[in-house]
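Review session, final week

We close the course with one last complete record, chosen because it touches almost every idea we covered. It is Homoserine O-succinyltransferase, a protein from Pseudomonas mangiferae with 379 residues. Go through it on your own first, then we will talk.
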Amino acid sequence: MPSVFPEDSVGLVTPRTLRFSEPLTLACGRSLADYDLVYETYGELNAARSNAVLICHALSGHHHAAGYHHEDDRKPGWWDSCIGPGKPIDTRKFFVVALNNLGGCNGSTGPTSPNPATGRPYGADFPVVTVEDWVHSQARLADQLGIERWAAVVGGSLGGMQALQWTISYPQRVRHCVAIASAPKLSAQNIAFNEVARQAILSDPDFHDGHFQEHGTLPKRGLMLARMVGHITYLSDDAMGEKFGRGLKNDKLAYDFHSVEFQVESYLRYQGEEFSGRFDGNTYLLMTKALDYFDPAEAHGGDLAKTLAVAEADFCVMSFTTDWRFSPARSREIVDALTVARKNVCYLEIDAPQGHDAFLIPIPRYLQGFGAYMNRILV
């Protein structure tokens, strides 16, 4: 019977859950006595356990990075364009692990999970987590899977920050680091965008100080606004102009403040509506704070080269020309620091009009460069 999925798909996948009972001490000073991590795997781990690749997700990502959950699934995992047979992360060669980070809302322990101290959802009582905390929890996951050293740790945006942190926190456990459309720390402008998004959620009357689950409500309006603001920053001006321009939904202007008149307005409202129905408000706050706090060079007085001096991995850094949220200049900061630290690094800047979201899109030049680097890893 022929497969209902494309030939280059990993096909049907099933999420798995691992329970960790050893307390995890967090950067904020609190700890989690126990927690769950949800993950998926694609491909086969070789006998030497040397072909494992970790996928780190971005702000709204999760463990479902490739393949399908059921035969009627119309939408594959969020990075399906890059993971699968013959794709840049080739599952005929690599054993791929993708997880939902702590604090997430897709199965791993987070604000929607029961707080063992109260029996009610954590809500706002869930501790603040950092990129470093995530990497420590991911290392424990690797231990449980019998992976002593990753062939590569790969991620885009916030995922790229995690990949970098791996080379700092566990230098001997990473052979290659692939950081895509990322940055060594957020700019003031990026922190400002995150704060606007957080305030949209925090000021929603249905937020109830983060305990909206107990009130049977959702901060839907706040989440919609947060997603709309975020989505604007993920796209370039050229991409929005080409996709929408000043196109109208109807033939005539309504001349009021409530009608959806422009196509771009309709698009943003749709994105906000869809997102607010599947994502948790407290998780959004946690993820944006993790972005804001990431600054590994701070440990060495702002000297990123000194921070990266401990790394033993080879590096591949990629950026996109129209990405103004995580501009190529920020990727070049990473490359410059790695060069000063005398690390092996290659850099690819892809000419692409899609903005920050380009790392999720199967752009031929991007896939070619990405695949070329990954093909070197097992040689």
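Two points worth writing down before the exam:
The radius of gyration is 21 Å.
The mean pLDDT is 95.
Good luck, everyone.
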